[in-house]
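Human: Not sure, check this?
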Amino acid sequence: MNFRDKLIEHTRRDLQRLQDKSRRPATWVGMLLYGGTLGLLFVVPIVAGAYFGRWLDTLATGYSVRWTVSLIVLGILVGGYNVFRFLQEKS
């Protein structure tokens, strides 16, 4: 058996393993990691917007929450877009 035949056989075996793996149901650990990733993709922009908005509000004279609320809403939009894009790539 030459190198080319061995390579073809190993590739065929790897493809069969990948197909068998895709047919198996998801494990609990896999689902937790997937859900955690989605949560982080959604929550991190919101929290970052809240902190950055709060910092901008402290720079302005008087007490205002305009930047905080605006950047939290922007964080929700960015987080939703992140989750949407992640789900589109995985399907």
Summary: Helices lie at 3-23, 28-59, 66-90.
